[in-house]
Amino acid sequence: MKTVTCTAPVNIAVIKYWGKRDETLILPLNDSISFTLSQDEMCAKTTISISPTFKEDKFWLNGKEESLENPRIQNCLKEVRRRASKRKHESGVEGTLNWHIHICSKNNFPTAAGLASSAAGYACLVYALGQVYGIEGDLSSVARQGSGSACRSIYGGLVQWYKGEEDDGTDSVARPIAPPGHFPDLRVVICVANDGRKKTGSTIGMRRTVLTSRLMQYRIQESVISRTAAMIKAIKEKDWSEFCDLTMADSNEMHAVCQDTSPPCVYMNDTSHTVAALIHQYNDVKTASGNVNHKVCYTFDAGPNACLFVPGAVVGELLGLLMRAFPPSPTQNTDTYITGIPTQPTDLTRELKSLADEDGQPTGKLKYLIHTKVGDGPRDLTDSSASLLDLSTGLPKQEDGNGVSP
Amino acid sequence: MKTVTCTAPVNIAVIKYWGKRDETLILPLNDSISFTLSQDEMCAKTTISISPTFKEDKFWLNGKEESLENPRIQNCLKEVRRRASKRKHESGVEGTLNWHIHICSKNNFPTAAGLASSAAGYACLVYALGQVYGIEGDLSSVARQGSGSACRSIYGGLVQWYKGEEDDGTDSVARPIAPPGHFPDLRVVICVANDGRKKTGSTIGMRRTVLTSRLMQYRIQESVISRTAAMIKAIKEKDWSEFCDLTMADSNEMHAVCQDTSPPCVYMNDTSHTVAALIHQYNDVKTASGNVNHKVCYTFDAGPNACLFVPGAVVGELLGLLMRAFPPSPTQNTDTYITGIPTQPTDLTRELKSLADEDGQPTGKLKYLIHTKVGDGPRDLTDSSASLLDLSTGLPKQEDGNGVSP
Description:
Two copies of one chain form a homodimer.
Chain A: E1 2-9, E2 11-15, E3 20-22, E4 27-28, E5 32-36, E6 43-51, E7 58-61, E8 64-66, H1 71-86, H2 88-91, E9 100-107, H3 117-132, H4 140-144, E10 158-161, E11 174-178, E12 186-193, H5 202-212, H6 214-236, H7 240-259, H8 270-288, E13 297-300, E14 306-311, H9 315-325, H10 334-337, E15 338-340, H11 350-358, E16 366-373, E17 379-381
Parallel strand pairs in A: 7-9, 15-16
Antiparallel strand pairs in A: 1-6, 1-17, 2-5, 3-4, 5-10, 6-9, 7-8, 10-11, 12-14, 12-16, 13-14
Helix pairs in contact in A: 1-3, 6-7, 8-11, 9-11
């Protein structure tokens, strides 16, 4: 039996992926750029065992046994095994390719929070498969076939996913463009919205936008191309103010083409829009006092949660502002409302207090905040105690609190 | 003393006006098309008196004395007087042009409902000025200088506002393109949302969109031009299904460019989006049973209220659906919730019941519904009892319930 355990991060796009040119290979209509987030606060974890004694392939996800028949998982598995078989003479994996596989995955962050867990999940699965079969080289194009944005979670820091030109998708890969510390002391605050509304899944939503939105044609052919170039320039020049403006513009444009879809795909809700308005007002205050490096920016994926990029120097102030504008529910205290990197919300100036009060919401509009930072790519955990599978049986550990019975 | 009393209708655009090419003359960046609504349910009413004995110009709006210094009112007044003076020898208005003027205006529909009252208000003001000074010919380009969309309220039925090409705006006029009964037995249901959020005024919003939205460039240069042509074809051919699709697409596109604005202009709220989604689902049911002529469409102006165009054959069903999906607040009954043309909501099929329940909202998300229809242009009321001004004093009538003290 051979066992590996890996973790992989979540990533948040600042130039958004919305729309495919190939549904099966998951090839996007435009390049995208993302920040990979720290695995200390949010990550997917996967243990893979292969053994000649296993009777069949098995898969457990978040404590529940699932079918491995999912075509996206099968595509990833097939592609990794194909790559492994091409170099089986050097690597000594010959034979192991015929062994059955046990896969156990879970996310360490709350599910049902609307946080794209599939990116971290597929990046982790593919990275762990790569480790178990001894694959070298880029795995981003494999992860892409599990979930498009998963390819960006294969690397840390700032990552660009190239849409590529080839029909077979071989050049639709992700590459790091700046290390995690590129914008020094940058923090990330995720505002998890308490949302009761139904969603349109992003696969269906993207398809519908591509088919029905006229504005999408302009986004793809003109707008996002020039914005991506401007974003790369802003990143290279560490122009934080420009980076913020481009990030908010691209988030707004993505949600605009979703609104321009028939029927419309609506992901932001009233709370999301109130957070966005508050950030613009906060930036007005900072800009008026000349602190453009204290600018905060928001971005929203296909869900109501705001992801805020915040210079470390103002994170305490921002947390104070959010707590005042979006008071926690009566059953929460500061510690359960602000999770992640421990930071006390700082006292607000009179100006910021009145700003928060102006946008003030009833309690409970946000479930909680996750305070995290930018981080590195997937990790291979050498500590065998981290394994989600029992190293003797290859079945999920009972003591893991997984609630999985072997 | 000479006195006239006129009423003028509200209009609802199906191809939206959003963005000016000239802020002072109020010249739009694109053509727009609207339905003029019946004055039985919603209208503006204006009485104008001119007299050689008046000491000064005076203006009362919704029961409150206001300054006439507003530059938009002054522009309308100046332009009407200029036209009158050009033909003073024929019309015998010479002399009266120097008399002071008393203007008293009010809306017969609830204020603070977010229903564009300025279109009806300025159309009424300009139409009444035209009557009092004996102006003949088109007044739409004068009304336009009060409030852009007011020019469309100068005519009944379906109206097109041509953006025009001239710098002086002389060809930016409205013209009827089909009479009120063009789509026979068409009804209109306005869903007035109970909205607590702040708005961006449309003048500021339009300016911001034109300056910051990249998608707006495409809307103006490509999208809205071809959609306007398609809309005129659909209207001429009485293709109701196509008319509905184009109306919803243009509303969605307008709100998309608003979302693409920096900072975003957000006019629709969670309730608005739920109404829109319900209409799409209702249409799916109707289309599945082959009734494309029973299709309903929505359009949203720069506010959260849905305006629905509904074939008369299904208006009872739609009212039933809305009442079930958006139950009135506990203090309301059906009569205070559904205002306007009296119609009983009909019983729903099991399919529609479950559709309403799926989207079901807490009570009070909508304030009330206004059930109305398409109507004609401004009217000159010959019945002197309709006057808002006392015919002997030229001051607001006390018995009018205006709350105006003379």
